[in-house]
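Hey L., structure's done. Input below.
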Amino acid sequence: EDGIRDVERSRGLGDVYKRQRERFEELKGLSQPEKLLENVYPRFLPSYLYLRKLLVAKVLAEVVKAGLCPSISFLSSGHDSLARDLALEFDGVVPLYVALKLAHEDASLSVSEGEGRRFLAKMLQDRLEEKVASRAGREASVSTWISVQVKSFARALRSRVVGYKPFTWRA
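Output:
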């Protein structure tokens, strides 16, 4: 009746990793913003890549706060691989959104200059504070959704029953 007893027993973290890898593979296939920018707006690719680094840093801070090992991963490798994997969920909501906004406004800035980087960081921070709705219709700031997703992922890794669903948003 409570739904817990009906769930098939997990065989441990190996099952969680396997299920999450399958979900992230689906997500990875859907998220290829570099190709979009390279083909349609090539001059905004450096801005996107810089914004993505800033987003990964934000996710990494949440990963550490949640007590997870940042180097466990499904798709990436390296010291921040988990943050890079989880940041994929927010590519369209944050760095790609900001880069496309710049393209739409026909803004020209250099990522190699301090002023250009500060401008991008400010745009990213503004976007993180904006409210977006999940597919379920709940609204929260992008920053809050990142925190919620990392905590949800941590619960999925620590629990044998709870599953993890990547974040999807309504445009």
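The first strand starts at residue 131 and ends at 134. The mean pLDDT is 78.

-- N.
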